[in-house]
TrEMBL record:
Molecular-function GO terms, alphabetical: nucleotidyltransferase activity
UniProt record similarity statement: Belongs to the IspD/TarI cytidylyltransferase family. IspD subfamily.
SUPFAM superfamilies: Nucleotide-diphospho-sugar transferases (SSF53448)
Positions of the record's site feature: Positions MEP for the nucleophilic attack: R139, K192
Species of the source: Hymenobacter koreensis
First and last residue of the signal peptide: none
Name of the protein: 2-C-methyl-D-erythritol 4-phosphate cytidylyltransferase
Amino acid sequence: MGADQPKQFLPLLGQPVLLHTLRRFAEPALQVERIVLVLPADQLATWQRLCAEHAVEIPHTVVAGGASRWASVRKGLAALIDTSEGVVAVHDGVRPLTPFTVIHNTYAKAEAHGAAIAAVVPKDSVRGLSKEGSYALNRSRLRLVQTPQCFELNLLRRAYQLPELPTFTDDASVVEDLHPIQLVEGDYRNLKITTPEDLVLAEALLNAG
């Protein structure tokens, strides 16, 4: 991003990106019982200050994360030690535009099948790399993975008892050796704020309603 602060704290229409994301899961119609926010330990004070500055009243638990995404999700799960069952969603804090329907449908499919993730069809042609150069891939058989990624709670707990491997790129890759992963139609508006251009587009989409 090249910014002077972590991208989850960058202003989006005057409020931190992370606050927009938090609101998506606090939507009353979703009936999310508990929100756990995992942040690097050195960012906890900044988030506390931003919550005071923006009068954030959304109930949530804040947990210090680990050295990797895998370790951070594991710490987030540990905060649910008093919860015995249900469906848990893992979501990127820098996806502040996730539509209600995507969140709801991913939760619902995970409740029915144990594991579900949001994904979209690639818009561009895709090629794989080879020693000779590259080769075409069938775009219709590929999906771009988004979040939320939703799982039956105890299934996700079992998955995170396994050793961390470098091949783990997201929660679905942690779970897939234990359980099939269902796909839910995502949304191209479900941006992951990564570059300055993403922030500009997010502002335009929010302004457009």
